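Problem 3 from the worked examples.
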Amino acid sequence: MSIIAEEVSDTKPPPALSSFASVHLPESMQSSKPLHSDVQSDALQIDPKSGVKRGLKNRHLSMMALAGIIGPGLLVGAGGALAKGGPASIIIGFGVVGIIAYSVMQSLGELTTIFPDGGAFLQLADRMVDRAFGFVVGWNYFIVWAAVLANEYNVITSVLVFWSDKVPQWGYFLIFWFAFLAFQMLGVESFGEAEFWLALVKILGLVAYFIFSIVYVSGGVNGDAVGFRYWNNPGAFGEHGFRGVASVFIFCATFYAGIESVSVAATETRNPQKAVPSAIRQVVWRILFVYLGSAFFFGLTCPANAPGLVAQDGALQSPMTIAIQHAGWTGGVHLINSFILVTCLSAVNSSIYIGSRTVLYMAQNKKAFKFLGYTNSRGVPVFAVILINAVGAISMMNVSTGASKAYSYIVNLSGVSTFIVWAAISFMHLRFRRAMRVQNRSLDELPFKSLLFPWIAIFGFVLSVFLALVQGWTTFSPFDTGDFVDAYILIPVSLVGYIIYKFVYRTRFWRAREIDLDIGRRQDLDSFSSIISFETQDDLNQEVAQEDANYSVEKQQQA
């Protein structure tokens, strides 16, 4: 693929222009009159290869990286992890998986800043490895967001039923289903702005809880200094020992799911070479403050054997709720539930956004039905949004199985898929650097360089594969058929999917010298706008025609 692409590279416009195919403007605007900067800016805001709009600002992406996907998985699901493993186990789990997540983000940062065009690592899997490999990665990533979204709808309806059961659970689901669908149709600017403020509320809420926890365990609430009491009774590792530690890893993977979403959003960012590295650096604080901080204070304020963590009726409760109750503030339960509801609104919004973009890029790359690759004039992938939102109806399985059991099923699916995707990203990074070396490319071309390469990429790959294989070992003794299938079904399904796709489409594993290192690069819009100006609309139209021709050649060679 890359050899052919290099043969036609001489016909491309200069790098500052080649990655900026624009959108054809209305006939009323196509004249020889001078082109105003605002018209030019609007033309450049639509990504020509995916149809999405580059409307996310740097602050939007930074806040998404810091707190965007924090939701019921952390605030409610941590209760199940605490009950299974104890306070020490969740800190170990968050710490180990956090290190893996950081290594993956280093790899992703390097890849995304140089190739920010549509599809992120979903498209790069095709280029760096094999189209069949990209097929498996893409659908596993879709499963991640389908499972996460279903869990978030599950928690929203559970919270509202807790307040009032006059409306059935499915009724609440339908209300929010249509509300989120309508909001997503407003476009990426509305999504980014909403996520910025909701993420800010989540950060402030966690800070308030951390302060409360310090005061509570010090005896400042009711005079009883709790300290590290719950680490002694019922114990740091609860009643399950190492089995508890192992069972926590899959929960933690689900909580971290979405940390890589900034790469998918990079296509809709005005200045990815500035915004993505900045967002990557925010990940460290997300791991330390949000995840490890929450794990530490949950273990301090809530005993692992608290009956309310998983109630007899199958309902889920947050460790925050139980801590407030133990402190003697019964009415505080409603405050915590309100906070959880806010995090759910943000998390559902983010899940639909990332999930729909995943489907969009898959469809545009011939790995899903073609109609799912349609975008409207606002840059919204309408049918992809409808599809991922419809999959959220899986959450209604809790009507028959109970919220906690449904949550457990969903967690296993999303956790395994997360490990598979992370391993794939690390592997892509290793392949990318090998291609750079074989093709005698300079590392100075990279806007962002990963730390400690290749060790950090190798670490991310090996640990992700290892945890994907061992996360379900607790189902062997005693053997539970349902839990075993739920824990491991995606691994053989992924292998079978890879083999079938490879056989049907006769794809092949790219050699390092064949990997294309040029197509898909894009400069920041602000930088581009400052150095390029078209004197007339005809100049822009000519550039559009040239870029369209180049892109058509590229797609034909890729096919």
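Problem 4, a separate protein:
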Amino acid sequence: MSNLSILILDDEKRVRDEISEYLRKNEFNIFLASCPSEAFAIMDQSTIDLAIVDIKLPEMDGLEVLKITKQKYPEIEVIMISGHGDMGSVIEAMRLGAIDYFPKPFRLIDINTSIQRSRRFIELNRQVSIYNNSISVLSKKLYQDNGSQMIGVSMAIKQVVELMERVSLTDNTSVLITGESGTGKELVALGIHHLSKRNKFLFHSVNCSAITDSLFESEFFGHRKGSFTGAIDDRQGWFETTNKGTLFLDEIGDMPMSQQAKLLRVLEERKVSRVGGNQSIQVDVRVIAASNQQLEKMADEKKFRSDLYHRLSTFIIHIPPLRERKEDIPLLTAHFIKVYAQSMGKKIEAVSREVSEMLQHYHFPGNIRELRNMIERAVILCDTRVLEPSHFPGFIPKKPQLIKTQAVVNLDLEQMERDMIERAMAMAENNKSKAASLLNISWQSLDRRLKKFGTEQD
């Protein structure tokens, strides 16, 4: 971590000098102010990570300085010091957002310890600030074109972005995007489309698990008037409507074998024939497929056509789960807070230190989708400027306690399954369809499990 920038606000020169001399030994960048107006001028002109503020000051008292600082610069952490403090001042300082309070005379080592405890949280805030001030060219383009961003500073997400940029330079290369449910596969597909020459034409997303055999040909290839009951007009299929654009096939692993053969033929010939018609129609469509399943293994086990797999997997992009790129959580959190706070007309600027720690220690089985849903609910519940643990009821576990390495842990798989289902139902507010989507299982499968565990909701 780079050096912290610390502002010391005290009207006594002796106190300022003592603290600054001690902290400079730790290679901190030190700024000094003798009055609030001088301190606020420094905050306006410089990036300050932490302020040490005396209670008794000219112009206004330190508690008022703390209040204004947290309103104008919520990312700045504040330590209060005082030679005239009482319990009421301590309580008020903590209520206003101070991270510590030291009565004079204090030990300089105690102030340094408090600063060191806050370093991780300050660094997370700094990463968010850096991200907001220097979004990548790719993110800017995606935001301008589509209102979406690839957010993160992790090496994993940078590699994903690099692959997106590379494959977008090609015109017809098929792309297979892999990753767990909720990792953002459709966003990656959309990003490739918007960065490519096809961005002036349609991007269409299809959930392959929702297309029945009876509808497959009509939806993908179109139909002629009178070709079947209900076909009252000629209709273009998705390959025609997305001509020169991009067709995104989500959860391609759920597509039945019978449909796979028909899809493969179109990918090879680049022609479609409408149901009830005998004319071949040339199509120019880039196909991007996605799956949370191991398609190569499915192909080896004859559960997925190997020829279709090889046709789709010319270029593979794997999106790692959120638990493997935790350094992206603060940036994603800040982004979702901004989005939902603006849409709800609220002024929410950050998460508390406790929430930040809890998010860092959470496993996120639902990945980015789960984090987004958590933040949306928290913003709805929040009436202050900072999200607190109370705004995340039932969502985030406390920091897990360490398990002694000598202990033998027997995993109760059935209990684990029950816990996952209960968590998904809580996140979905007992909506079975939403919970099933989070768990990546069918509604019927979830219903059977709820009955099995005796946890079915009324």
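Solution to problem 4. Residues 133-148, 398-413 have pLDDT under 50 and may be disordered. The chain has four domains: 5-133, 137-318, 323-401, 411-458.
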